[in-house]
Amino acid sequence: MDHYNHAIEEFHQQWEPYGGPTPDDVFIEFGLTINQFYARHRALTRGRRRRDTPRSDTATQVATERGAPDA
Three-state SS for 69? Predict the structure, then answer.
């Protein structure tokens, strides 16, 4: 992970307990709109969650999300 992406993740973690950063804070820090910031953060964390989740857990999660009984 490069420095910029790491900074986005840390910034998000710092603001999360307070309901997230304001659009002004994001723009000042990264030069991004709030939507761009959250899209980048989702892309960063989505990829990591998939790699860190064991295959069996992923199958259970997908089944549960689809409403499969006793998943």
Answer: coil
